[in-house]
Design a protein that fits this description.
- The radius of gyration is 28 Å and the shape is elongated.
- The chain folds into three domains: 6-160 and 220-310, Bira Bifunctional Protein, Domain 2 (BirA Bifunctional Protein, domain 2, 2-Layer Sandwich), CATH 3.30.930; 165-219, no CATH class; 321-417, 3-Layer(aba) Sandwich (Rossmann fold), CATH 3.40.50.
- The protein has helices spanning 9-25, 39-46, 51-56, 75-84, 129-146, 162-178, 185-193, 207-211, 222-237, 282-285, 300-310, 333-344, 359-368, 379-384, 403-417; strands spanning 29-30, 36-38, 58-61, 67-70, 94-103, 115-124, 153-158, 243-244, 256-263, 272-278, 293-299, 321-325, 350-352, 373-377, 387-391, 399-401.
- It is of the alpha+beta class.
- It contains 15 helices and 16 strands.
- Helix 1 (9-25) runs antiparallel to helix 5, helix 2 (39-46) crosses helix 4 (75-84) and helix 5 packs parallel to helix 9.
- It binds adenosine-5'-triphosphate and magnesium ion.
- Residues 51, 251 line the site of magnesium ion (MG).
């Protein structure tokens, strides 16, 4: 679990701003749910036989003996909230998104931490491929805005209906049983619990066996095929390129029909940046009246690592100006000036001195702050009503400015930012 230090927060804020804006223009509204839910929600919602529930959850007992879990993902929590507040039964299409920490007890490594952050989008009440295309296009827009569009690839697949998956499951089990001696220990265990996950194995020795396995697409019925085709047609019509990956099954139990993943080769082994899919059965399974649902989640740490690898990361923002006041002047002088400038100039980043000291000491602090300008008030300025402006970064004559001139200068400085 990592600290996000002040020097690194600028890029997080920029990414969050871009995401917020994109969500807003697509008509998605933010939801914030608790970090802790009943353990049973995740067991039922994610599936007992998944990696997350089997070995990755932070589960503890509350004082009253309830079993609680730090959320390992947020689809289940969103559905719980949606059910509780009627978002799946109001007859409309509800578009929501979230941003926040998730917790998984996995082996920490590059690209994988135990507290990480996901942004996700979920839609309740729309059954067709159109909403899947919308969700995918929305993430594509986020990649473009952040300058990483060329570094990610979209893979899609169809998992069919629950029945089709069940019939495929038995086909697959037969196939792997016939090849049991070639299975690794993980796969042997999954053969009993979640055989589709064997296809997801990252073990190179499993590759050939998996490549030759019967494909899910062969078990799909006419409706599922049509649904898959519709999504492809929509993506084609909107100019998005993708590849079909018949082995993409995603880690969670609750998906059906369309699933997809955005991957990158720029981050080494942990290449999944964003994954999503349809989960029409989940709401019903969690006790609600059945309602179509679909969504995706992206990993913020991986997205940010990708931006740092391939795009321009923003510099940490430094103050525009630092207020320096002669020690003999009344103690409120600096803060009064700073407050009035903050009120008049929206977005001005202004730091005022808070540690009493000589002018020399204050100038040192002004320099360390990274500010471009020092705004200096001495006895002379106090009586003339002017401010001395001294550049801290460039060789330039200091200037004595009246209030109007100072405003113009600061506004120019802000315009230069944009
Ligand atoms: P992976 O195959 O890498 O384990 P996953 O299938 O477990 O990913 P999801 O549950 O689909 O991942 O979560 C969506 C995204 O969240 C992933 O694509 C990834 O970017 C990010 N993510 C998942 N687990 C972690 C983690 N432990 N640390 C950092 N990011 C993570
Ligand atoms: Mg995982």
């Amino acid at each position: 679990m990592h600290d996000l230090l002040p020097a690194d927060s600028a890029i997080w804020q920029r990414v969050e701003r871009v995401i917020q804006d994109v969500m807003r223009v697509y008509g998605y509204a933010e939801i914030r749910t608790p970090l802790v839910e009943n353990t049973a929600l995740f067991k039922r919602g994610i599936g007992e036989a998944t990696d997350i529930v089997e070995k990755e959850m932070y589960t503890f007992e509350s004082r009253s003996g309830e079993s609680l879990t730090l959320r390992p993902e947020n689809t289940a929590g969103c559905v719980r909230a949606a059910l509780q507040h009627g978002l799946t039964t109001d007859g409309g299409v509800n578009r929501i998104w979230y941003n926040g920490p998730m917790f998984r007890y996995e082996r920490p490594q590059k690209g994988r931490t135990r507290q990480f952050h996901q942004v996700g989008a979920e839609v309740y009440g729309a059954a067709g491929a159109a909403v899947e295309a919308e969700l995918i296009l929305m993430s594509a827009r986020i990649w473009r805005e952040l300058g990483v569009a060329d570094a990610v690839n979209l893979e899609i697949n169809s998992l069919g209906t629950a029945q089709e998956r069940a019939s495929y499951r038995s086909t697959l089990v037969d196939y792997f049983r016939a090849n049991e001696s070639s299975l690794d220990t993980d796969s042997l265990r999954r053969l009993e619990t979640n055989p589709l996950r064997i296809l997801d194995s990252k073990n190179p020795e499993m590759q050939a066996l998996n490549d030759a396995a019967p494909q899910l697409s062969e078990s799909l019925g006419e409706d599922s095929r049509q649904h898959a085709q519709q999504l492809q047609d929509l993506l084609d019509a909107c100019g998005l390129t993708y590849s079909i990956n018949p082995r993409l099954v995603r880690g969670l139990d609750y998906y059906s029909l369309s699933v997809w993943e955005w991957t990158t080769s720029a981050l080494g082994a942990q290449g999944a940046v964003c994954g999503g899919g349809r989960y029409d059965g989940l709401i019903d399974m969690l006790g609600g009246k059945s309602c179509p649902a679909v969504g995706w989640a992206l990993g913020m740490e991986r997205l940010i690592a990708l931006i740092e690898a391939v795009a321009d990361a923003p510099a940490a923002s430094t103050p525009h100006a630092f207020v320096v006041v002669a020690p003999e002047l009344p103690p409120a002088t600096g803060q009064q000036l700073a407050e009035s400038l903050r009120s008049e100039i929206q977005g001005l980043r202004l730091v005022s001195n808070v540690i009493p000291g000589s002018m020399k000491a204050q100038f040192k602090r002004a320099d360390r702050s990274g500010a471009s300008l020092a705004l200096v008030v001495g006895a002379e300025e106090q009586s003339s009503g002017k401010i001395t402006v001294k550049s801290l970064r460039e060789r330039a004559e200091q200037q004595q400015l009246d209030r109007g001139q100072l405003m113009d200068m600061l506004k120019n400085l802000l315009d230069g930012d944009a």
